Amino acid sequence: MKVAAVIAEYNPFHNGHHYHLERTRGLAWADYIIAVLSGDFVQRGMPAVMDKYARAEMALRNGVDLVLELPAVYATGSAEFFAMGAVSLLDKLGCVDFLCFGSECGQLEPLSRMASLLLEEPAAYYIPLQHYLKAGHSFPKARSLALQVAFSGSIAASPNDILGVEYIKALQKRRSAIRPLTVQREGSSYHDPILDENRRSGPSGGPLFYSSASAIREHIAGHGKGEALADLENIKGHVPENVFRLLCDRLGKTFPMGSHDFSSLLFYKLLLENEKGFSHYQDMAPALSDKIRKNLNRYEGFEQFCSLLKSKDITYSRISRCLIHILLDMREEKLQEYIGQDFTFYARILGFRKSSAPLLAAIKANASIPLISKLADARFLLNDAGLSMLEKDIQASHIYSSVISDKFGHSFSSEYTRPLVILP
After folding, report:
1. Are residues 18 and 92 both part of a single domain?
2. How do residues 386-402 score in pLDDT, each as one tens digit?
3. Same domain, 100 and 195
4. Are 90 and 206 found together in one domain?
5. N or C: which end of the chain has fewer CB within 10 A?
């Protein structure tokens, strides 16, 4: 049995994701594909446009056999911790043969060389890195510039390539038997806000648009009931048909969700803790904590505040992640505790296909962490650190669900009663 894995957000699922899954199955000769999926908050420090169960269903309807949730502490972390959390989870399943990720360059060799360089930090890289940091650049920018110096030329610095490097680095650091594979990204770039206008032939022969998730979100986020229907029609050729039907079915009921929907909750949390500061939160530098406190009286909303705090040495995404960590009460000391105990403690199922029964059996036979399908079982299976991590996942989803309930008048959905997504 060959098992391949992908690490994803599917925010939302689009044609490029479908292409990636088809190529993954072909490259790995995979019998099964596992997706490790971010929950209701994602790596750029924002709520997902749609809840994790809907996105899990999108994945299962388009080639994935089993969807596992990436713990929120890593799903909202930096690229390094996002990758380490997901790779650790996959490695501990004991049956994954390949990890396949998308990249702009489409080649493993340069990404592997970069990963090795980042692990070893030779002087040729470390000295220019410190130089660019002292010059006031953000860490991602300083790292990119230092890598160009170390490689004596330009290198790809797209989000997909950066994550690819982090995945390989995590596999190398763990001495994992999982082999990396990469698929070259098709169509629009990661951050492209404009819908793709070039029809292409997909792997199955049909005409497709390959727009970025960012562009698709631009056309669906922030709209109310009914009025977004025309905008959904505009993205019909940019997502698989089954995804389009799911989006239409949920429109104005449980989605779209955006950062602005959490503005009041965040402001309340910032006001509560403004006196003591925020340096104890995950990924938070003292200077940023001071800047938040100094500018809190200028707060107008989540996105406006991120833009207000943004500077040359700290990116919008880093600020947004830090604010999400405050909102979700994610503390640095807990992250360090999890890291000290090897990152992950469980694999929580969001959904699966019934035909994946042999895969589930293989995981149960080989995994070094428990496979959780019922939250009620967790207290019998996990240590204190594992329970703490799982409780944070539950809390994050309850916060997300409470905002859905308030925005759309939808009944609150408890994690303890939500059924798994199970397809034939």
Report:
1. yes
2. 999 999 999 999 999 99
3. yes
4. yes
5. C
318 belongs to a structural domain: yes
* 149 within domain boundaries: no
pLDDT exceeds 50 at position 227: no
- Supply the Cα-derived Rg of the chain in whole angstroms: 21
Q: Are residues 320 and 366 in the same domain?
A: no
Claim to verify: residue 329 and residue 191 sit in the same structural domain: no
- On the question of a cis peptide bond just before residue 122, with omega within 30 degrees of 0, the verdict is no
Distance CA 385, CA 340 (A): 10
Helix (H), strand (E), coil (C) string for 343-378 = CCCCEEEEEEEHHHHHHHHHHHHHCCCCEECCHHHH
Which ranges in 262-383 belong to alpha helices (H)? 263-273, 286-295, 302-309, 316-327, 332-340, 357-366, 378-381
What's residue 169's pLDDT? 96
Give me the CATH number covering residue 24: 3.40.50
Both tokens assigned to 177: 């038997």
Query: What are the distances in angstroms from CA 116 to CA 86, 108, 176, 248, 377?
Result: 19, 12, 14, 45, 40
The predicted-structure confidence for 189-200, as pLDDT tens digits, reads as follows: 555 667 766 666
Domain assignment of residue 277, given as a range:
259-334
Final residue in a domain of this structure, among 334, 368, 392: 334
Structural element, H or E, at residue 118:
helix 108-120
Q: Are residues 265 and 301 in the same domain?
A: yes
Place of tokens 């995994």: 367
- Is the Cβ–Cβ distance between 102 and 22 less than 8 Å? no
- Structural domain total, the chain: 2
Give the tokens for residue 324: 């999400």
CA 294 to chain centre: 30
Grade residue 158 by pLDDT with cuts at 50, 70 and 90. low
State pLDDT tens for residues 171-184.
Answer: 999 999 999 999 99
Tell whether the torsion through CA atoms of 408, 266, 47 and 35 is positive or negative: negative
Q: Please state the φ and ψ torsions of residue 103, each to the nearest 5 degrees.
A: -150, 155
Name the pTM for this structure: 0.93
CA–CA dist 172, 111 (Å, integer):
12
Q: What is the pLDDT of residues 47-73, one digit of tens each?
A: 999 999 999 999 999 999 999 999 999
